[in-house]
Amino acid sequence: MEKFHLFFCVMVLALSSFSKKVTVHGGMNTTRINHVKGIVGALVDYSSRIGKEEKVAMEMAIQDFFNYTNQSLILQLKYSQGEPIKAALAATDLINTQRVQALVGPRTWEEASLVAEVGSQSNVPVLSLADPTPPWATKRWPFLIQASPSQQAQMKAVAAIVQSWGWRRVILIYEDTDSAAIGVIPHLSHALQEVGAEISQFGAIPPLASSSLSEELEKLKRQQCRVFVVHSSLPLALPLFETAKKMKMMEKDYVWITTDSTASLVHSIINKATAISSMQGVLGVMSYFTETGPKFQDFHTRFRRKFSAAEHPEEDNYEPGIFALQAYDATRAVALAMVQTNESGQQLFDKILLTDFNGLSGKINFTEQKLAPGNVFLIINVIGKSYRELGFWSDGGLGFSESIDKGANYNASMENLSQVFWPGGPRTSPRGWTLSTISGRLRVGVPNDSNYIQFVKVEYDYSTNNYSVTGFSIDVFRETVKLLPYYLPYDFIPFNSGTYDALVQQIQLKALHSISLEPCFALVSFCHFVLCRWRHFHRFVGLKTKKGRGEHIEEAYDAQLEIDLQMGQVVHEELELNLVRR
Question: Which residues form the signal peptide (predicted)?
Answer without folding.
Answer: 1-19
